[in-house]
Amino acid sequence: MKILELKDVHKIYNSSEIKVHAVDGVTLSFNEGEFAAIVGPSGSGKTTLLNLIGGLDMPSSGEIIIDGTNLATLKSSQLIDFRMRNIGFVFQAYNLIPVLTAKENVEFIMTLQKWSREERDKRTFELLKAVGLGDRASSRPSKLSGGQQQRVAVARALASRPKFVLADEPTANLDSRSAATLLEIMEKLNHEEKITFIFSTHDPRVMKMAHRVITLEDGQVVSDDVKEA
Amino acid sequence: MAWRNLWRNRRRTLITVASVFFAVFFALVMRSLQLGAYDHMFRNIIESYTGYLQIQHEDFWDTRSIDNLIENSPELEKLILKNENADLLIPRIESFALASSGEVSKGVLVMGVDPEREKYLSNIGSRLIKYYITEESIELIRNSGAPEDVAKRISELKGNAYPSNSSLELDLGIRAGDSASLMPLIRSNTNFRNGYIKSGESSVLTGKALAEYLKLSVGDTIVLIGQGYRGASAAGKYRVAGIVKLPSPDLDNKIVYLPLDVCQELYDAPGMVTSLAVSVKDNGDRAVDAMTGLIGKELSPPLKAMDWRQMNELLINQMEGDNKSGMVMIAILYLVIAFGIFGTVLMMTAERRREFGVLVAVGMQKTKLARVVVFEMLYIGFMGILSGTLAAMPVIIYGYLHPIRFTGEMGKMYEDYGLEPVMPFLPADWYIVWQMVVVAVIVLIALIYPVRKIMRTDVVKSLKA
Fold it and tell me: Which domains does chain A have, with CATH numbers?
């Protein structure tokens, strides 16, 4: 089932006299449960494309439709609400809330969505266990390693069962062992929760594990390879 | 979350709370002391001279003419005392005359007072000199074996007069421990025999400085010559019954008190007065204002009700000027903490820019995020205000119950200006609430910046910060 569609999306940055085409006519679609990687050299437009897909930035032209909703039709506050309900984010620098514990970070979006305490506790415990941090629920981010923080970030992104998770270079700050563990966990969750994962990455390990690899160059899609199951 | 955010930089939060604490603490203590001093000063003047309300001829206050008299009739007294806050009427005649004794003459202020009723207002009896340091008394004290330093100090105070033991002790600078052994000796050798005026007796009280100028002692005769009511000539010869020491040097140098009936006879104005001061039961501003309004409506020209504000206009203006300078000081204090608070807000906003971006990215509404930041600053403000107020209250209560009492030169200066040398604190009142409101407003103003920043958060730029 198609959950995300990009139709001739452009993003142009106007810096004084030079126009920069960060995303140049991208047309893509993603189905439920995909595990896709967007790859390409630095400056190819990966992060910009993820920002557009996540509704963090608006395209100069073209349409982005998520589960039937064109993002351009939403007001600012509606867009924030839409993101909260439909999109999970994993950032390169983890970006956990430093004053909250691992458990509180995971349940943060569920709290915003006004889930009941029982539901929150159940889901948080389930996710922390799934990312191998069931015993670190009460630790603050400063007490966790980089890999552990990124696993909490993944749990947070999945907490409210979004339509898809966007991960911008999730393994870039991790050592190889932590990166491998994280990828295994993400793949497992993708399989179990049927949630679409879209990564931007340079990491060959991520590319190797991805079921679909989209290559960008100068803001354009130059290849879109789906691996055979 | 807001509470936890406060403690992510514990030192900065504590410094900001401390700056609010000190501002509130010092503002409250300073304000309490300043307002307490004004309150005390006004009560001193009102309760010792003008009273809270006077009934006068409508032109008297401006002209001070003996021709602008009013009749002290039982009907008028009844009309005024009908007001439930009016306790007693104190009639007075105030005019001028030329006073002579021997070959010396001087223009004087003549006050005709009811000797009994005046005790309820200015209480001039309490100003009668009790102790007078003369050449003879200094010699007696020296010969009776007083310590050298005390004898020396008494010599320095030659010519001084005191209406009370406490003012004598204050001027001598005698230590509390030595008071019991030295004061009886000093009192017995400086004791001054004095008397008071009585209705119907041709006697007067004079200020000490005036008595010295006219070379008068108790029992001597003073002659008063002036203009009486409606052009009559006023002249009389009176025995000096007593000498008073008034705190105001100006008044001390020109005042002569006569019994009211004798004064009316002098000015040929039987049954007439220049003013009727009203002694009040409740001296609170509201009660006095209400009384002034009600009595004022009942009076018909040429009678006029003058309240204490109208009669002390100059002093009120001076106080307002002083009050403004005090407020400027407090404003500077607040400006300093405003910058402190704003500095904290600025740092907090700058260092959390990325975090704000993340929170908005994952779905937190900007208004909700702004609310968290508002709560953080309100907590800081609340902690500072509460702790500052709690710390200031015991100081204010102590200062109210145990006013600062000036001694030495400062104390003397206060007495010379006709003021009791004490500085009490004003007890808890609306000014406390106002200080709290001002700090809260500063915090709210400082919040405009982070709230604007949050509402204008560009998620993509914030995530790169």
Answer: 2-226 (3.40.50.300)
